Amino acid sequence: MAHATVYVGFTVPQLLRGASRIFPTHPALVVLRHSAFCYCTTNGTIKSKRKMDHLERTANNFRQEVISQAKVCGITNESETVKRLRLAIANKDFTFKAGQWVDFFIPGVSVVGGFSICSSPGLLEQEGILELAVKHTVHPPAHWIHTECTLDSEVALRVGGDFFFDPQPGDSPVKLVLIAGGVGINPLFSILLHIADLHGYQEGKGNGYKMGTVKLYYSAKNTSELLFKKNILGLMNAFPGKITCRFHVTQQSSQICKELQPHVTEGRISEKDLEKHVSNDTLWYICGPPPMIESISKLLSNIGVPRNCVFFEKWW
Known about the structure:
The chain is α/β, with parallel strands linked by helices. It has helices at residues 12-15, 54-57, 121-127, 140-147, 185-205, 229-238, 271-275, 290-302; strands at residues 8-11, 29-32, 40-42, 63-77, 82-89, 101-106, 109-116, 129-135, 154-160, 175-181, 214-220, 243-249, 264-266, 282-288, 310-314.
C-alpha cells in the first residue's frame, strides 16, 4: 500500500465536507507536514523525535477519502483508565483493515484525535459498528471522550494507517506473533478478532482462507490494566491451538485471579519467549510505547528475525 505524501493547509470544517453534515468547530488551521515522522514503520530504524500531534505524525500515512458521521451507541469502562466506545457508522462506504486507526473529529474541539480501532472489520460489515478503546489523558480528544462524550454524541471518522493484516482467499497461510504493550493492544486485538472471524469462515464455509496460528504476547503493569482479557480468553477457548496468548505483568501487587493464572507470567517479554516462534513463515506485529518497541525490535534482531517480517506501530 502506498504512503500518502501530503503538504496542505486546511481547517477542520473543510475536512468534514465529505461527511453527511458539517460539524461546527473552531477553525484552527492544521498543517500536515511532509517531514513528519511516520509512526507506523516497517523495515526501518526507529528514532524517537519530539512529540507531535496526530496529524503531523501521520502525514505520510495512507488515508481514505471517505469521512463518515458516527453516533456513539455504547460506552463502557474497559479499565479504570480506559473507556470503550461503540460507534454506529452512517456511511456504507466506510471500511477499514484490521490494525488501522481513525482520525477522530469532535464538534467544538479543534484538535483531531487519532485512535486505533479495536473491533474487527467483520463487525462493521455485519452490524455497521466500530469500536475504540481510549485511555484517559489531558489530550483534548481523549479528555472529551472521558468527560463529555455521552450516548448519541456525534463525531466524524476517517480511516488511515499502513499497519494492518489483510490476508486474501488463496494466500499461503502464515503464522503471526502479536506483541502488545499497554493500550498498544488496540490494533492487535482488531487483528486477533479478524483472524478469529477468518478461522470461522474457513471452518464453516471453506471459502479459500487458509489461516495459520497466532500467538499474542501482551504486557501491562498489572492484570487490571490488561484490556480485553475476557474476550481474549474466550477466543483461546473457541480456537484451541490456533489462537494462544501469554499475558506479562511487570508490577503486579495483588493476587492474580484463578482464571488468568495459567496464562500470566510476571516479568517482561523475553528473548527466550520469542525465539521459539522464529520460522520462515512467521510475521511479527508490535504495537506499544516507543521504548518497548525498540527493545522488542532488538530482541527480534538478536534471534535472527528478518527485518522484512517485522511490522510495528509506535503509539504515544
